[in-house]
Write a structure and sequence with these properties.
Blueprint: H1 2-25, H2 35-41, E1 47-50, E2 55-58
Antiparallel strand pairs: 1-2
Length: about 60
Amino acid sequence: MPPVMFLALLGAIGVAGYRIFSRLGNPKSSRPHSAADAARTRDLGNLEWDEGAGVYRPSTKRDI
């Protein structure tokens, strides 16, 4: 029985190591994981105050 437990432990360590190294090599894994994180990293450009809603919104004027 101890050799089976040793092989199971060795397999679990191997799977964990594979997952860690695959995440380190994949630059896509560092992208935001939720919509709130994505909204924080998005550039909204110029903002203007919306009196009706009481919040800042992206400006509708475009500088070209």
